[in-house]
TrEMBL record:
Keywords: ATP-binding, Nucleotide-binding, Transport. The keyword Transport applies. CDD domains: ABC_Org_Solvent_Resistant. This is ATP-binding cassette domain-containing protein. Residues 10-245 form the ABC transporter domain. GO terms for molecular function: ATP binding; ATP hydrolysis activity. It comes from Pseudoluteimonas lycopersici. Pfam families: ABC_tran (PF00005). The keyword Disulfide bond does not apply.
Length: 263
C-alpha cells in the first residue's frame, strides 16, 4: 500500500488474542477501509466479541498490532478514553440505564465528554433521536419501549459524539424479523449519511450480508474467509458452506479447545 492511501479505519497485523490463558484468535490480518460496512461473521464462540474487545482496547493483543483510526490502540487509560470518544460502540444488550428516559440516556456521553449549554445539549439529543426515528419517544423510559425501539435509543446514544467509526456487536439479538430489518436498514443509512465506517459482528449472516461491503468469517481460531458478500455466497470452501448452512457437521469445530496451531 502506498503512503498516500488514507489509513484504514481499522488495521490488525498478525494479531493474537488470548483470553483466560487460552488463545482465542491467532494470525489475524484484517483491514476495514474507511467509509464502508464490514461484517465480521462466525459461529458462536468463534471469537467475534473477542476481536471487538481488541478494537476498543478492552483486550490488548498478546501479539501483533491493532490500529484504530490510524493509531495503535493505546494501553494507557487516558489515551484510550480519548480514542474511545471517536468510536461508537453498540454492545450486546442495549446497556440503557433503566431509571433514565430515552433522551437522558442519549445525553449521557455528551454530558461526560463535552460541556454544553443545556439548550445545545437538548438540541443535539433531539437530533440524535430524530436520526433513529424516535423523536416522539424522548421522554419514555426503557421499560416503555419495545425491543426494537430500545435498540434504536442505544444506537442514538452510540452516535452521540459523531464517531467516525461504529462497532456493533450482535445488533439483532432478541429482535423479531421486522425490528431486525429496521435496525439493519438504519445502520446502513446512518453509515452512508454520516460518512462513517461500520463494523458489524453478527452470527445473523443473511440479515447482515445485504448491507455489507466486505465480510470476514472467523472460525477455528482465525480468519477463514475475507472478501465481498457475493464472493462469500459463491464460496465452495466446505467450511464456509457449513457455516452458511448453519450445519453442526463439518470442518468447523464447535466449543472445542483451540490450540495455538488452530488457524
Ligand atoms: N473473559 C473471558 N475469559 C475467558 N474466556 C473467554 C472470555 N470471553 C470469551 N472467552 C472465550 O473465548 C472464546 C470466544 O468468545 P467470544 O469472543 O465471546 O465469541 P463470539 O462472540 O464469537 O460468540 C469462547 O471460547 C469463550 O468461552
Ligand atoms: Mg459475541
Amino acid at each position: 500500500m502506498s503512503d498516500d492511501t488514507p489509513t484504514p479505519a481499522v488495521r490488525l497485523r498478525d494479531v493474537r488474542l488470548d483470553r483466560g490463558g487460552r488463545t482465542v484468535l491467532d494470525g489475524i490480518d484484517f483491514e476495514a477501509p474507511r467509509g464502508g460496512i464490514v461484517a465480521v461473521l462466525g459461529p458462536s464462540g468463534s471469537g467475534k466479541s473477542t476481536l471487538l474487545a481488541a478494537l476498543t482496547g478492552e483486550l490488548p493483543p498478546a501479539a501483533g498490532t491493532v490500529e484504530v483510526l490510524g493509531q495503535v490502540v493505546p494501553t494507557r487509560q487516558r489515551e484510550l478514553l480519548e480514542l474511545r470518544k471517536h468510536v461508537g460502540v453498540l454492545l450486546q444488550g442495549n446497556g440503557l440505564l433503566t431509571d433514565l428516559t430515552a433522551a437522558e440516556n442519549v445525553a449521557l456521553p455528551l454530558r461526560t465528554h463535552a460541556r454544553l449549554p443545556k439548550p445545545v445539549l437538548d438540541r443535539l439529543v433531539a437530533m440524535k433521536l430524530g436520526a433513529v426515528g424516535l423523536h416522539a419517544a424522548a421522554n419514555l423510559y426503557p421499560r416503555e419501549l419495545s425491543g426494537g425501539m430500545a435498540r434504536r435509543v442505544a444506537l442514538a446514544r452510540a452516535l452521540a459524539l459523531d464517531p467516525p467509526l461504529m462497532i456493533y456487536d450482535e445488533p439483532l439479538t432478541g429482535l423479531d424479523p421486522i425490528a431486525a430489518g429496521v435496525i439493519m436498514r438504519l445502520i446502513a443509512r446512518l453509515n452512508a449519511s454520516l460518512g462513517m465506517t461500520s463494523i458489524i459482528v453478527s452470527h445473523h449472516v443473511h440479515e447482515t450480508l445485504p448491507i455489507s461491503d466486505r465480510a470476514i468469517v472467523i472460525a477455528n481460531g482465525g480468519i477463514v474467509f475475507s472478501g465481498t458478500p457475493a464472493e462469500l455466497e459463491r464460496s465452495e470452501d466446505p467450511l464456509i458452506r457449513q457455516f452458511l448452512a448453519g450445519s453442526p457437521d463439518g470442518p468447523i469445530r464447535f466449543d472445542g479447545a483451540l490450540g495455538a496451531e488452530a488457524a
